[in-house]
């Protein structure tokens, strides 16, 4: 009897110990399951997936120079673009030397020598390019930002040339060792032989297709992230946020340190965190990595995006992620903000974050083929625009429009002007602001 009582008492003590441990871990202050630091945010369900920075770094276009004044262009996510870019990412580039470029006739090389030109619009830091391409570290240009990589061959020469163009004016670096043969380059160039022909304008700034261009017009099913989802994602403790309604109808939430403004009519949010950043200078590559991590944790990626940089300084960076539909970017317009995510960073700390609350569902509801004007019709319209401002670039894009049925994506030519403004030419040939 005594042994049975001892066993029963021991069992009660073990059960009591387990119950006490449960409350100590899960219910009392200090338990990991309820205690959060300011760097740990609530994970919100039903928002976008995470992304790696390597998947966000790629050229905005790929120009193929066929020789004899012939050219064509491939755009992201298209078959030949993906094939060529995947091959180039596996080749090595070493032994960089800075070369004199002021007296080089680049248009002559474009028109006469077969080659591939990758453009990165605002530029990508070399340290980030090294994450997607086999570029050997080199103190000579590791601190540069590259906006163009040009690989070409010259008749009667046995090696390929690989040039890296810096965003700093006319600074150009050539790789002394290139893991590409003349035959490799020619094989890549040959992919463009039967593609839409493009002609180079006189000043060499952009290319015009000689034929009309087919694009898909799409209507997409959409949903909208709620205020509660964004608050849960962005604030350490959403329960202590204070609500303020502005006269313009926008809602503002604040926890006394950070603020979130939601403009319901525009389906757009702006988040700000004025916390003092740590001492030191900003590093563009580290700011980009911090921006990707921040989006991963606070909203995720509701589609295909490409990295762009709007401006950098010793203290600040502005990182922009451009959204794509298929091979072409979606423009952020004055009348409807959509298609970009923008982050301001100070020494790795996000001080501002803007994005649309709209996200698309799976496949488009409906798709229709449309034609963008090419050849003489397009040249005439571009000549009219060029009378008032110099044209820096021309590329196909989509203008988004919010409708009662969802999101409408309309194909346009995007015309980038020297002052940074974008004009669009629709499939009907109408010039719009």
From TrEMBL:
Domain Regulatory protein YycH: 3-419
UniProt xrefs under Gene3D superfamilies: YycH protein, domain 2 (3.30.310.160)
Name the UniProt record assigns to this protein: YycH protein
């Amino acid at each position: 009897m005594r042994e049975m009582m001892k066993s029963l008492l021991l069992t009660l003590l073990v059960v009591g110990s387990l119950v006490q441990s449960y409350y100590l871990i899960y219910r009392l202050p200090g338990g990991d399951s309820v205690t959060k630091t300011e760097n740990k945010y609530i994970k919100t369900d039903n928002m976008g997936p995470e992304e790696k920075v390597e998947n966000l770094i790629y050229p905005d276009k790929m120009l193929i120079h066929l020789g004899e004044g012939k050219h064509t262009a491939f755009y992201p996510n298209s078959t030949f673009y993906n094939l060529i870019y995947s091959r180039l990412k596996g080749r090595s580039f070493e032994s960089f030397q800075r070369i004199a470029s002021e007296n080089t006739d680049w248009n002559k090389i474009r028109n006469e020598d077969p080659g591939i030109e990758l453009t990165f619009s605002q530029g990508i830091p070399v340290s980030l390019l090294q994450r997607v391409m086999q570029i050997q570290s080199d103190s000579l240009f590791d601190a540069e930002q590259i906006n163009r990589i040009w690989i070409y061959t010259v008749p009667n020469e046995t090696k390929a040339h690989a040039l890296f163009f810096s965003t700093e004016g006319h600074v150009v670096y050539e790789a002394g060792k290139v893991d590409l043969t003349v035959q490799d380059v020619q094989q890549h160039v040959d992919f463009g032989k039967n593609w839409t022909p493009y002609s180079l304008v006189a000043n060499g700034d952009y290319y015009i297709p000689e034929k009309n261009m087919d694009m898909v017009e799409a209507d997409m099913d959409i949903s909208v992230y709620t205020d509660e989802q964004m608050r849960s994602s962005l604030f350490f403790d959403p329960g202590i946020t204070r609500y303020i309604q502005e006269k313009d109808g926008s809602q503002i939430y604040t926890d006394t340190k950070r603020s979130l403004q939601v403009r319901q009519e525009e389906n757009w949010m702006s988040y700000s965190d004025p916390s003092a950043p740590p001492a030191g200078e900003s590093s563009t590559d580290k700011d980009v990595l911090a921006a990707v991590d921040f989006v991963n944790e606070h909203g995720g990626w509701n589609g295909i995006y490409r990295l762009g940089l709007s401006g950098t300084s010793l203290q600040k960076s502005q990182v922009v992620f451009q959204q794509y539909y298929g091979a072409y970017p979606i423009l952020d317009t004055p009348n409807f903000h959509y298609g970009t995510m923008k982050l301001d960073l100070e020494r790795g700390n996000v001080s501002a974050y803007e994005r649309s609350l709209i996200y698309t569902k799976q496949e488009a509801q409906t798709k229709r083929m449309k034609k963008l004007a090419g050849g003489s019709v397009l040249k005439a319209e571009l000549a009219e625009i060029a009378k008032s401002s110099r044209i820096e670039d021309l590329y196909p894009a989509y203008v988004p429009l919010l409708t009662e049925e969802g999101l409408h994506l309309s194909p346009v030519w995007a015309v980038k002007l020297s002052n940074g403004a974008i004009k669009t030419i629709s499939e009907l040939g109408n010039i719009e602001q």
